[in-house]
From TrEMBL:
Keyword terms: Fatty acid metabolism, Ligase, Lipid metabolism
Protein name in UniProt: Uncharacterized protein
Entry GO terms, CC: endoplasmic reticulum; membrane
This protein's record includes keyword Ligase: yes
Pfam family, one: AMP-binding_C_3
Organism listed in the record: marine metagenome
An MF annotation (GO) of this entry: long-chain fatty acid-CoA ligase activity
SUPFAM superfamilies assigned: Acetyl-CoA synthetase-like
InterPro entries, per database record: ANL_N_sf
Amino acid sequence: FAGEIRIDKPNDKGDGEIQFRGRHVMKGYYKNPEATAETMDGDWLKSGDLGRVDEDGFVYVTGRLKEIYVSSAGKNIAPLVIEETMKSIPIISQCMLVGDNRKFCSALFTLDVGAILRDKHGLDGATEVPKDPNEQIAKLESLGSKLSDYTASSEIKAELDAQVQELNQKFSSPEQVKKFTILPRDLNVDEGELTPTLKIRRKQINENWAREIEAMYSD
């Protein structure tokens, strides 16, 4: 890498905007000072990525600045890192963190039907669990179960709560998931909740599940 890298305005964990400068970096946009100001900080190029550099010089990208939440107490929170951590729980398919201008973080979870077939019904994941989500639902129903048997299950909620509490130890108190809701279906492209590349669309999810979100903050 023939240039320099810096972390701008790092937080207490060392995470800040990753910025670059060097001969390979442009000086700005031609006759467009507004765009230049948005993209450049002097001769430093703003990547828009949130990350840190460890003591060995390795760069870790932990999120996007545009996706940073600010809690009601003014704490900056990077949702992507927390969401990916929660998705390490095998039965979770999708996770969206809620916390922007909120007094604590909560999460919306959806369940992985393939994991339910594998772990709750004992099916072989390689040979007996369909890849297609609709076929997974059909398979579950052919076994005499419905997805709602799990999304509304107090046992599943208790299992998730224990795993969430364990994973919360990786984060500071303002970043920890204090409450969560299991949605009755997975997020999908047709409802505008996922992009074609299956990235979550926060605005649409917030709109579609506003009642469930507000219920977590009603106490």
